[in-house]
Amino acid sequence: EVEKIFTPRPKTSQSNTFDVDDLLRDLDIPKVSIKVIDEQSGLWTKHQDCVRIIQAYGDQNECLHISCEYSPIGILVSYFPEDQSNKFLNLCITDIIIEKIIKEKFISRDINLTTSSDLTTTNQSFFAQDILKLENQLRSQPILIILEQRCIRLFGIIDLVKEVEKQIEDIQIKYASNMVQLNLKPNQIKYLMDIHYDELKALEINYKDTKIIEHLKNAKFLAPTYLQNTIEKQIINLATLCTPIHFEIQEESFRPIAQNECSNLINIGPISQDHVSSALTAAAIKIHQDDLVVICSTSMYLRDDILKKAGQSVKQEYIEAAKSSPKEPFETNSGNLKCRKLLFLPWEINRTNNDTFYQSIRNFVKKAVQYAIKTHHTSIAFPSIGCGQINVDKNIIANEMLVEAQKQLLTGNVLLQIIFVILPQQIDVFNAFQSKLDNLQTGNMAIKDAEISYRLSTLKLTIISSSVTKQEECKKALNNHIQKSIAVREYLQQTALKIWTQPTINIFYKFCFNRHVVLDMNIQIGYLKLFGSEQLVIEADNEYHKEQAQQSEQARLAVIARDVIWAYKINDNNWEKYSSELNIRIEDEYSSKRSTFSYTDIKSEEYIIDFTTKTETCKSNQQQRNIIRHAEFILPQYWEVQSENVQKFLVQSSSIEYKEMRALFDKTMVNQYIEIIRIERIQNKPWYIQYNSYKSFSSKKDTEKQLFHGCPQQSADLIINSFFNRSFAGINGTVYGQGAYFSSNAFYSHGFTHPNTPDTERCMFIANVLVGNSIQGNSTMKTPPTGYDSTTDGNHIFVTYRDDQAYAAYRIIYK
Fold it and tell me: Do 482-559 and 646-814 share a fold?
């Protein structure tokens, strides 16, 4: 507006300048007034840079016409007072409004620092550098930041000051130092201070605002929050990886000594008794060529890691097999892994309640063990399922897996080595398994007498000495003592080991275990190794030779009595066989040309057998009964020469034998199946002899029937290698008694065959069954009533209760 109306007056001769006052007065332009902002408004007025901040605010506000400058008495704000002009009111303002703007639009803040810092460029702390960096970023902003020894002062627009205040607080939190407690033992602290002092000092230099050495004596250190995890990890690493602390000796040389001569080791060391420790590693598990390794196919991390290590060919084999049977166990080659086969088995977890969950663990072990038995593997290695991502209580896993493994060994009546593989870092899992295993071995759990192998890899000693020279002397002395104290007995090609039974192995294992003698045994190749303290190894060695002699004698007796059955007469028509053990003893005495033989039964009754008169006399009441020796068994006409006690032979489809079995099957199964794949003849000589003996000694020979028995595919091989016993009763139900079920109706038995998948094979047995006297059965019967041999539905179902009452003669495989 001034420019529009301003016309310069011409200069006069009397003056070379304009009369500004006259001009302003003529134009009604007000004179400038000055407002002083002094210390009463705050100490910030002492800082010249505040002028820039207030002026910047005025410049950005079109309605605010002020000019600011600094003076010793305060900040001078020049303005046009409102009462000085009527024409240019939009240029004017009052001093009251200026004071209000200063109070409401601007704010000052003092931020106290928790630690002293000069906050200069020479200060190398991360906190100081971040604050200086922030100050540099704010220099062009309308805010004043003043850095002092213990304080940061801010002045500026309220919103901007609060924003910067928050940034400074965040930096303070990030670099705030707190005391951290370390999980270190006194000897570890001593090692750190003696051996790794320089490394600890370097940590203090590298990480500013930290104090380690000063507080380490109390197992603590001081550090900013963001550095605490990093520093703690490095200190712990120094403590655990300190080479003078741990002295490792291989188990073969050390474990027995650690158990039996701990006091001697302490005297040699010096060693702390608390630091004789053990660790289980997967590398310590010896996987032999015949071993089967179980992989939980539903454990993604374990499965993928195993497939990666096994190689691409195994991975491709797995993918193809998983497509066809994702819910069933299947084998693959082992690829780069040192085992014979990999068994992929899903763990079908059921967490409806605790009982169903525990059962799912047992089912996993059961399926794997039964598969290993069926496929004739000699050992099987399990992972500790559920201890990783699923995070199940390790004690539950150990208990369920070990108990079920033991149960399967007992019921399977086979020789199978079961190994549990624990990862090196799973010390707590190992301790849980070891504790449960100890309970099993000492009989403190429900099931006893099974052998489950585990091995330790290394044991560690902690040598209490800060002198490297002294530690080396200790190590040398310990090694010398161990070498002198250890005894080793190793035997190769011990063919007699192959006839050791599982209970015998258990007894010998416990003998060694209780004496801390390490046992390494492989019965398939006849290998045995004992090592430990010399005197204890001698004891174990003597026990081994004693057991070998007993086993050899038992094997000799078993050969003698293999095809011989002794029985005693119960009544005019029935005979009862002696127990297997007693049968062997009787035959041995008879073969040795003895005239008599005495024994005591389970009721402590003493009997005398007279081989000349073929009688047995009870010594207490002089009652006599006849005995008989049955040694001539005629094998079935179709049987072929066999090299093993149990073999299966394919029945040729063109033979009369095949046509007879098919005709029997087709009586009720015509049009009920797609095809018969094959018919197998089962030649289980021990079972047949037992069955034939029962048939010969009893009056039941005229009651022999050919009946059918349907069962799931996975149970078939167990039946072939054992009997139709009560463990299979649940397959067909218990409506007519708790025994083994048979039917004359093949179609009825078909309903119990249960294939693995709808398109896979089914199997059914044709069995010779001595039904004898049969009576209507019910679900409560565990044995038939006196005078009866089996139970029935009154039509086609028969239930037997003796192992030797039925014999599986044929197996029909069909779809």
Answer: no
Q: Give phi and psi for 534, each to the nearest 5.
A: -55, -50
Q: Which run of H or E residues covers position 161? A: helix 158-174
Considering only CA atoms, which of 404, 401, 460, 400 is closest in space to residue 427? 460
- Backbone CA torsion sign across 772, 778, 781, 782: positive
Measure the CA–CA gap between 415 and 438, rounded to whole angstroms: 21
3-state SS class at 734: coil
From the centroid of its chain, how far is CA 732? Answer: 36
* CA gap 238, 188 in Å, rounded: 9
Q: How far apart are CA 315 and CA 304, in angstroms?
A: 9
Check: CB of residue 244 under 8 Å from CB of residue 471: yes
CATH code linked to domain 292-442: 3.40.220.10
Average pLDDT over residues 136-160: 87
**For residue 183, which amino acid is it?**
N
CA geometry: angle at 420 spanning 356 and 426, to 5°?
90
**Per DSSP, which regions of 611-759 are E strands?**
615-618, 624-630, 646-650, 676-684, 704-710, 740-743
pLDDT at 268: 52
- Of 742, 745, 760, 765, give the one whose Cα is nearest residue 679: 765
Nearest C-alpha neighbor of 406 from the set 377, 375, 374, 433? 433
Q: What is the mean pLDDT of the chain?
A: 78
Fold of 482-559: Ribosomal Protein S8; Chain: A, domain 1 (3.30.1370)
Quick one: which of 481, 478, 65, 448 has its CA closest to 270? 478
pLDDT band at 792 (very low <50, low <70, confident <90, very high): very high
- The 3-state secondary structure of 203-263 reads HHHHCCCCECHHHHCCCEEEEEHHHHHHHHHHHHHHHHCCCCCEEEEEHHHHHHHHHHCHH
The share of the chain scoring above pLDDT 90, in percent, equals: 17
Distances (CA, A) of 406 to 157, 237, 362, 419, 519: 79, 41, 11, 12, 19
Q: How far apart are CA 154 and CA 580, in angstroms?
A: 100
The domain spans of the chain are: 31-111, 159-201, 292-442, 482-559, 562-630, 646-814
Element (H, E) at 399: helix 394-412
> Could you tell me the maximum CA-CA distance found in the chain, to the nearest angstrom?
175
Q: For domain 646-814, give the fold.
A: Phosphoenolpyruvate Carboxykinase; domain 3 (3.90.228)
Q: What is the pLDDT of residues 308-331, one digit of tens each?
A: 888 888 888 888 888 877 777 888
Token pair, residue 234, equals: 């490095």
User: What's at 757, amino acid-wise?
Assistant: T
- DSSP-derived secondary structure for 547-611: HHHHHHHHHHHHHHTTT-EEEEE-SSS-EEEPPHHHHHHHHHHHHTT-SEEEEE-TTS-EEEEET
Q: How far is CA 760 from CA 362, 384, 489, 717, 813, in A?
A: 26, 31, 51, 16, 10
CATH of domain 562-630: 3.30.720.50
pLDDT tens, residue by residue, 189-222: 877 887 788 888 888 888 877 899 999 989 999 9
Which of the residue ranges 122-136, 200-214, 718-732 would you say has the lowest mean pLDDT? 718-732
Who's near 753: CB < 8 A, 6+ residues apart?
710, 711, 712, 713, 762, 763, 764
Q: What's phi and psi for 377, nearest 5 deg?
A: -80, 150
pLDDT tens column, 506-556: 788 888 877 878 888 887 788 888 888 888 889 999 998 888 888 777 777
DSSP 463: B
Residue 407's SS3 state is: helix
Q: What one-character DSSP code corresponds to residue 12?
A: B
DSSP 743: E
Q: For 172-192, what is the mean pLDDT? A: 83
Residue with more model confidence, 238 or 473:
238
Q: What global pTM score does this model have? A: 0.39
